[in-house]
Amino acid sequence: MPNPLDPNTIPKYLNQLVVPPVFEPTVVKNKHTSKVKSHNYRVTISQFTQQILPEGFPETTVWGYGSKVRNPETGEIIPDYRSAPGPTFEAIRHIPGNVQWINNLTEPYSLAVDPTIHWADPNKIGMPMPPFPPFPPGFPLAQSPVPIVTHLHGGETEPPSDGYPDAYIRGIFRCAGLAAPRCRADFGAGLLQVGDTGIHTGVSLVIPFRGDEPQVCLRK
Fold this sequence. Notes:
This protein has one helix at 140-143; strands at 22-23, 26-29, 36-50, 60-70, 77-83, 88-90, 97-103, 150-153, 156-157, 168-169, 171-172, 175-176, 183-186, 191-196, 203-206, 215-218. By secondary structure, it is mainly beta. It has a single domain, classed as Cupredoxins -  blue copper proteins (Immunoglobulin-like, Sandwich), CATH 2.60.40.420.
């Protein structure tokens, strides 16, 4: 495992906070009326490196979300953008948003997975009993594949669609465990967070609306 950096050598408050880009949807319209039916998204979750620490320090290996995005300040479209924290969803009242989550995490967990607590357990290894092996290697069948499930913070979500610890996505649009194929969320004003039960990369969900509460559908 890599040697950790000495935190006392890292200067504070140097990096400028940035405005996250906005996920750019595929707009689906009624072919007869041209009325917008939905905003559809294809979002990947993958591992990459990103400059988290100040310049001069090495990049950090992160897990984050990616897709086609729009720079909210310039309007520039970036076809394949990845970041942690992730980009923002801009949802419009009465227009459903359908998100196809794609788990592109192919490397094992770099940190130890504790299979003695309730979790997704994609390899069905069950709960091990003592004695427990040290990490590394720990429990190799718990380190890979990496199960994740997207979870909406700040919404009123039906329990089967709320991202249980033993629900997970593997590969393209594949749901297992208790993950429901569709998630319906009702929410009011403010900033909502879309994260997951395995990692905390986060995807922000900004809801512009007027009047009654909007309704958004998230497809897992």
